[in-house]
Amino acid sequence: MSALGMEGSEEAQTPSGEALSLPWDRFSSWLHCICVVGFDLELGQTVEAMYPSHAKLTDKEKTSICYLSFPDSNSGCLGDTQFCFRFRQSTGRKSSLHCVLDQVDRDSPVYLKKDPSCFYGYVYFRQVRDKTLKRGYFQKSLVLISKLPYINFFHTVVKQIAPEYFERNDPCLEAACSDIDRWPAPVPGKTLHLPIMGLVVKVRIPTKHDKPGTTQLVDMTQQTDAHISVALPTIHEVDLFRCFSPVFFHIQLLWELVLLGEPLVVMAPSPSQSSETVLALVGCISPLKYCSDFRPYFTIHDSEFKEYTTRTQAPPSVIFGVTNPFFAKTLQHWPHIIRIGDVKLAGDVPKQVKVKKLKTLKTLDSKPGVYSSYKPYLNKDEEIIKQLQKGIQQKRPTEAQNAILRRHFLELTQSFIIPLERYVASLMPLLKSISAWKSPPQPKPFSQEEFMKTLEKTGPQLTSRLKGDWIGLYRHFLRSPNFDGWFRSRRKEMMQKLEALQLEALCNEDLLIWVQKHTEVESVDLVLKLKNKLAFAQREHLPVGVDTLQKLQGQVDTIIQELPEDLREILLKTNSS
Amino acid sequence: MALRELKVCLLGDTGVGKSSIVWRFVEDSFDPNINPTIGASFMTKTVQYQNELHKFLIWDTAGQERFRALAPMYYRGSTAAIIAYDITKEETFSTLKNWVKELRQHGPPNIVVAIAGNKCDLNDVREVLEKDAKDYADSINAVFVETSAKNAININELFLEISKRIPSANTSATSGKGFKLRRHSSETEQRCC
After folding, report:
1. Separation in Å, CA A134 to CA A137, A139, A300, B70
2. Are strands A336-339 and B40-49 parallel, antiparallel or unpaired?
3. B7 with B59: CB under 8 angstroms?
4. Which of A71, A127, A426, B192 is the most exposed place for a label (fewest CB within 10 A)?
5. Phi and psi at residue A369, in whole multiples of 5°?
6. DSSP letter string, A337-401
7. Does A53 touch chain B (CB under 8 A)?
8. Mean pLDDT of B54-67
9. Is A466 in contact with A380 (CB distance < 8 Å)?
């Protein structure tokens, strides 16, 4: 037997080499905390336990977690249920981002970045008859609270922890937390092997450089025993086909509604259906980021309930999922409603159905379907519908159906976004306009008319066979929060690129010659400006090479040495501050 | 070369040196002031055995009583269990026997059991005779070695013995074929000749 030595850095094992991280540092790069929510006969739902015990949640946040961790009483979920919710974090909470995490977040795709204003809750709820309890039922939820939208991954993790916890109590959570606290940080592009309570979960964290739609994880090992290890093909994607199957004749319409940030509510019989449908909707415009608020599971106790359901103003741009029948009345005025009935049997071929008029949605027992008076800009893609229907008849595996649908959405979104990307790239100033001695030029402003003109020759018709009013769709999109969010991040990237190019231009100048031709005051001014630029480059992670930064720093140091001693000292001091 | 993942759990009383055995095997180091394990710690090491790569996924469980109930999560799906005791403490050997019973009742049916009598460098204060432990191990068809994580005695051997007892993935495939051949023996024989 010959030892092959240590495993690669992918492993979560070398505590010796990683002595730099404090206890719970690693844990907090994945989770904020783990909560146990139970039912108290006098108090109602309460947070019974929280790990780690020093984790901070405001009372308001705790209340949100309590209500959102239990299904609405009417839905009568017996047995085990899993779902996900999202809630706003209290204002005034310090964003205590670990420095490592900034690095982590920077290389994440936009739709996988940490949520700056919200927490996700990944719930495992158990409700079983128990005569020994006063209430007659055992009702408890184990909830993972995190800022990371790794839906599929945390779904797997909570499923591993919760059933054991319900059987074996507190030592179980201690063990789980101790496991998680030894995980390596979620660094984009890395394949991680994450041990959790006897199971190894293998995942790959996507990066923003990944080609959308490519396979994310390749597992090299032969055997797959579900008790030993599990390789997740994706950390965040939900099964689009399963989620959309109750409404799959309307996928075109739904894609447009999500793209345009229209107010949309999903009424479902259970929190698991409501949350996965909302997540599927938000994910169907990937790689575009859905920029408005969304709540996979929303209850009447939510702190935003009044804000979102008021009739005094137009419904906000938000997607939420509800199960409480009360909403059918409260949200009657909403422009777009998806009603999902109880899950159909597999292999059942849904019949062609029309979009229903909103007027008909009055009562709780309204039929499942999409209620909206929206008329899609694009024609329906009959081919994808036929392809999926054929799949159902032929009992094609749901993974394959999901892959087909996912590719369809991806191609559609890309066809839509490529002309915008191309136009925005043309807003970048010419390279020759960048000067070492002037602040970088601004990108040209976005002109709707200029953009529309480009569509004639280089519009979506180049990549999509879908006909319809693309122009109308773009006009509408340009007014939507999703455009705003997308353009902001593109503009930021351009500004950073321009800053970086200017730094490079500076770097290629002989600053010493400049200094010799200028006054002392001007030299000092230059040094201070350069220092600011260097600090900015590091803080904002400008896309500029380390060698450029080093060379520039070297130039700054040389200039300082040229100055009289008294000035030199002052400038060196500002260096250290 | 085929890579096989083999789940291995370490069981045994608190303080017998389970974590030290794993550290010696994986890192080839020893720390006398190691902290008690919480829940279980996890490490991996890949070794070559004949024409296969054995990747040991090692779950080193906590010996403390309050974590006792968690053990099934770690021996579930395990190919092998290493049960360790301290040769200088008689009672740790009794605990070992209880683990064997639990594994027989609730563990995976074909789990390879390996018994490690650790701290064999402390022969002067020995309480458990090597022969007694060996006889017991033989009676339950378990691997047996006395080890010292501190002095690096018999640690690699322990895992080698486990590797030896694991049926090769290829053999099981071939034996399946062999079975088939025997069933249609006459026909096959004619074709072969």
Report:
1. 8, 12, 27, 28
2. unpaired
3. yes
4. B192
5. 150, -175
6. EEE--SPPPTT--PPP-PPBPGGG--STTPPSEEEE----SBPP-HHHHHHHHHHHHTT--HHHH
7. no
8. 94
9. no
In terms of Cβ atoms closer than 10 Å to its own Cβ (0-12, 13-18, 19+), residue B73 is buried
State the amino acid at position A456 in one-letter form.
E
Q: Does B189 have pLDDT greater than 70?
A: no
Taking a C-beta distance cutoff of 8 angstroms, is the pair A293, A261 a contact?
no
> Given the structure tokens 């005025």, which residue do they identify?
A333
ipTM above 0.90, yes or no: no
Ramachandran region, residue A216 (left: φ > 0; alpha: ψ -120 to 50; beta: rest): alpha
CB contact under 8 A, B38 and A175: yes
**Strand, coil or helix: what is A29?**
coil
Is the Cβ of A562 closer than 8 Å to some Cβ of chain B?
no
d(CA A376, CA A255): 10
Considering only residues B126 and A115, tell me which one the structure prediction assigns the higher pLDDT. B126
Binned average pLDDT, 10 residues per bin, chain A of 577 residues: 42 43 85 94 90 91 94 76 93 56 74 89 93 86 96 96 93 94 91 95 90 68 74 91 89 96 94 95 94 94 85 90 88 90 54 63 66 92 91 91 94 95 94 85 93 91 89 96 95 92 88 85 88 86 86 88 83 63
Number of Cβ within 10 Å of residue A108's Cβ equals: 20
Q: Do A182 and B38 touch (CB under 8 A)?
A: no
**Do the chains contact at B70 and A175, CB–CB below 8 Å?**
yes
Strand pairing report for A137-146 and A118-129: antiparallel
How high is the pLDDT of residue A508? Answer: 86
- Is residue B178 predicted with pLDDT exceeding 70? no
Contact A318, A308 (CB under 8 A): yes
pLDDT bin (cut points 50, 70, 90) of residue B182 is very low
Per-residue model confidence (pLDDT) at position A475? 96
> How far, in Å, are A265, A320, A332, A359 from residue A336 at the CA level?
7, 11, 10, 11
Tell me the average pLDDT across B72-96: 95
> What is the CA angle A410-A276-A181, rounded to 5?
95
Give the distance, in angstroms, between the CA of residue A230 and the centroid of all CA atoms in the same chain: 23
Cα dist from A277 to A72, A122, A243, whole Å: 17, 15, 5
Closest-CA residue to A527 (of A554, A550, A488):
A554
The SS3 call for residue A488 is: helix
Give the CA dihedral A417, A420, A421, A426, nearest 10 degrees. 170
Question: Hey, are the CB atoms on A7 and B69 less than 8 Å from each other?
Answer: no
Task: Find the closest chain A residue to B27 by CA distance.
Answer: A6
Name the pLDDT band for B177 (thresholds 50, 70, 90). Answer: very low
Q: Terminus-to-terminus CA distance in chain A, angstroms?
A: 56
Predicted confidence at residue B64, as pLDDT, reads 92
Distance of CA A503 to the CA centre of its chain: 32
Residues 1-30 of A with CB under 8 A from B: 1-4, 6-7, 11-14, 16
What pTM was computed for the model?
0.87
Please check whether residue A577 is in contact with residue A530, taking contact to mean a CB–CB distance below 8 angstroms: no
Sign of CA dihedral B96, B16, A194, B161: negative
**Mapped to the 3 state alphabet, what secondary structure does chain B carry?**
CEEEEEEEEEEECCCCCHHHHHHHHHHCCCCCCCCCCCCEEEEEEEEEECCEEEEEEEEEECCCHHHHHHHHHHHCCCCEEEEEEECCCHHHHHHHHHHHHHHHHHCCCCCEEEEEEECCCCHHHCCCCHHHHHHHHHHCCCEEEECECCCCECHHHHHHHHHHHCCCHHHHHHHHHHHHHHHCHHHHHHHHC
In this predicted structure, what is the pLDDT of residue A3?
47
Query: What is the per-residue pLDDT for A266?
Result: 95
Peptide linkage before A206 cis (omega within 30 of 0): no
Q: What angle do CA A438, A441, A442 make, to 5 degrees?
A: 145
What is the pLDDT, as a whole number, of residue A251?
Answer: 92
Residue A63 token pair: 């209340």
